[in-house]
Each structure stands twice: as structure tokens, then as C-alpha cells.
Task: structure prediction
Amino acid sequence: MAVRAMLRFQSPMYPGNSRGKSGKAASYCAELVRKRDYEGFLCTLLLPPESQNSVLALRAFNVELSQVKDSVSQKNLGLMRMQFWRDILQDIYQENPPHHPVALELAKAVQRHKLTKRWLTRIIDDREKNLDDRAYRNIKEMETYAENTQSSLLYLTLETLDVKDVHADHAASHIGKAQGIVTCLRAVPFHSSRRQVFLPVDICILHGASQEDFIRGSQERNVKDVVYDIASQAYVHLEHARSFQRKVSGKAFPAFNITVPLDSYLKRLRKADFNIFHPSLQRRDPWIPLSLYMQSWRKTY
Result:
């Protein structure tokens, strides 16, 4: 609790400290991220102060897009929402953002850090493609989606830190892919409860696991083997990112704080013998704040 309190109050961007209209927009973004992307919120609090509001805006933008799929009943409605954000992005880069709190904060971030538009556009484009309710055909397809969404978010975070480093970009690519894979795994119980399965078809076929096995929450070995193979790929990406850690600029390390909750989940999944439905995996890891602080202090990822 002490670490959580420290994380909360050391950030001047925390909602309680905001003022005026600008402060209300910043508060909205911070609260949205805190509620919908809690681990990302904690990671952002350990960024340099000059980057925090910008990254909270980026994460709020990502949250808004990620919620579209589960908040609409028809694909056409989802396409309209995506076009709404595409239009907002166009207005932002024409320096005429609408009076929407996320748009206003994102516009500030774009202006302050000269953020690359194609990374933001790529997030919208792939979130839009993902509106189709179908499973990934293979792990490569899952990685491509993760690269275009999670890795793009990390590239933008690096820009807020003024990092222009090919090695940092390489690390961001692999960490983003790991995050996308873990995010998909963590969502399995939720999706299964709605009779949806998005795990790579080729790996399910390899182990003889059907969609119905996941929908009924099977704990059979073949289901665990599917989860093991997918989780192993996330671990490989994390290890690859760390293999050239000495080549990455130290300024980039704060952007990669997300490796802490990724490591935590993969370790807990292994402890649960890759039973993706184990109750322990549905709870937050209470040690994440302390682990984040320790990694930040050690200047590593």
C-alpha cells in the first residue's frame, strides 16, 4: 500500500491535482486509463513528468478504440465509431481538435512531441479490422495485430521520451508483440463466457482442442498445451527484446515498464500449470507496484 500511495502522489498528473478545462481533460484521460488499463496507468506514473500526460492521452485513445468491439451490437456501428476517431485524428493534425477530452489531450501530445501520425492511424486501422468476430488463423496473424496496435503505442511512447534509436524500436516491436499475446490470453475466460474464442486456429488444431473446449472451460491437457504454446511465444519475444538491452538507450527503458506485468502474468500462468481458467489469474498481482518501482530503480526492462 505504501508503494501505491507513493506512485499516486509522486505524479503531478494524477486527476486530483488538475485545474481548469485543460485539467478536466487530463483528469478524464487519467481516470479512463486507471479504470480500463490499470497496469498501463501504473507504468505511466513512472515516466518522466514531461511525458506522463502525453502517454496518458495515448493510452486513453487506445482504450477508447479497444472498447469499440465489445460496446457495439453490429459491425456497422463499430465502423462508424472507428471513422469518428479517424476524423478526430485528421482534425488534430490540422490543429483543429474537437472538444472531446481525449482529442484535446492527444492534440497537446501531438503538438508537444511531434508524434508520428502513421502509428496512430495504424492503431485505428487494425482495431477496425479486428471488429470481425473470428479467431486468428495462426500465431503470425496474432503477432501482426499486436505489432500494429501495442507496438505502435510503444513507438509513440518512445517519441514522448525523445528517443530515436533503432534498437529501442526493435525492443518495442517484440515487447508489443508479447503484450498483444498476453492480452489475448488474459481475455480467454471473458470471451469464452460469451461463447467466443479468438486463439490461433492452427495451434488449437495441432493439439486437438476445439472452440467448445474453451467455451466450457476445459482443464484438459490439450487445452493447456494450446495455452503453453501461445504463452511460450510471448516469452520468446520478451527474451528477444532483452537480448540486446545493452544496445538500447537508457532513456528508452521507462517506455518498457509494461514488461513487469507481462512477466507477472506469465509466471502466474506457469504456476497454474497453464490452466487459463484458474481463479488466481483473474486477480490483480498486488506486487506489481513494488515490482515496477524496483525495475525503474534498477534501470532495466
